[in-house]
Design a protein that fits this description.
302 residues; Alpha-Beta Plaits; four-stranded antiparallel β-sheet; rod-shaped
């Protein structure tokens, strides 16, 4: 056990020395890895912030209930109070027909309203559901349409469906981009390892002649790939944090112009750990396959 620990510590020191011996090349490799990781991670953060912003938008989907002509204002207010007690309803607002006509006039249609012999608008209830999901809204619409006081129900869920579809498309793009760039990251690490093996071919041949196994030779390169991946993950995390810091004031001003407040959020603790773990694992896998393939290609005795 002691020998295994000593050899692993030795392999780790060798890997760190190889990084410090070529600082410029190592720096460029880490930066390339950081950019490859920050693209899917940045898109993931963008989707998370858009979803959080959409969840806090004050203009929610409204279900408009146009009451029948024979329904008076008192009966309409009583119906509004009854609907407000339903568990799937967040709030209900009663709009008197005279109030609706005043809103129509304020909207610039005063001449049209004046030309009408009587107010043709019905009393209206505006219902906001607790669950903004399109399927839940549709179920609530069908329930409210069956009420005897209701003449017609208007529900516009196109925005909800479009937003859900866009977010789903974004998640698929994040997954696809993460896979493609993960393969690129492994290829970058593997190519770096392969070049190092060829550069140290003479040392490897001597080590084999004195009895070194491929596992013994492979271990420092595995540490090298894992360290490169971890460093790339840390650089990607710092890059995302820097981008969020640079955009923070602009996003705050944009939100203020719409009368709201919004702050960009970065990666959480578990998400940061997942990013670093994935980058380390990809670097390790790239090194493992590159070392195995390259050692098999060397024309030296085992």
């Amino acid at each position: 056990m002691s020998a295994w620990v000593d050899h692993n510590l030795h392999s780790l020191r060798v890997a760190l020395k190889r990084l410090t011996d070529t600082p410029l090349a190592s720096l460029f490799t880490v930066l390339v890895i950081a950019v490859a990781l920050s693209l899917p991670a940045g898109l993931y953060l963008l989707l998370a912030n858009v979803q959080r912003l959409a969840g806090g938008v004050p203009t929610e989907a409204e279900i408009s209930l146009f009451l029948k002509t024979g329904v008076g204002p008192e009966q309409g207010r009583k119906l509004a109070a009854q609907l407000a007690t339903r568990p799937e309803v967040r709030s209900v607002r009663f709009i008197d027909r005279d109030e609706a006509l005043a809103q129509l006039t304020a909207a610039g249609l005063g001449e049209v309203a004046a030309s009408m012999p009587a107010n043709p608008l019905p009393h209206t209830l505006v219902v906001i559901a607790r669950d903004p999901a399109p399927a839940s809204l549709e179920r609530l619409r069908e329930t409210l349409a069956a009420l005897p006081e209701v003449e017609r129900v208007n529900l516009d869920t196109d925005w909800a469906r479009r937003l859900a579809a866009l977010l789903e498309l974004g998640r698929d793009l994040v997954a696809l981009l993460a896979i493609l760039l993960g393969l690129a990251l492994a290829a970058i690490t593997g190519n770096t390892i392969r070049l190092q093996i060829y550069a140290q071919r003479d040392e490897i041949e001597v080590a084999r002649l004195i009895g070194a196994t491929d596992r013994f030779i492979r271990r420092p390169f595995l540490y090298f790939g894992a360290i490169q991946g971890l460093a790339g993950g840390l650089a990607a995390w710092l890059l995302l944090a820097l981008v969020a810091l640079l955009l923070e004031d602009s996003v705050a001003r944009l939100a203020a112009s719409y009368g709201t407040t919004f702050r960009l959020t970065g990666l959480t603790g578990p998400e940061s750990a997942a990013l670093l773990g994935a980058s380390t694992l990809l670097g390790l896998l790239g090194a493992y396959f590159a070392v195995g393939y390259t050692l098999r290609g060397l024309d030296t005795p085992r």
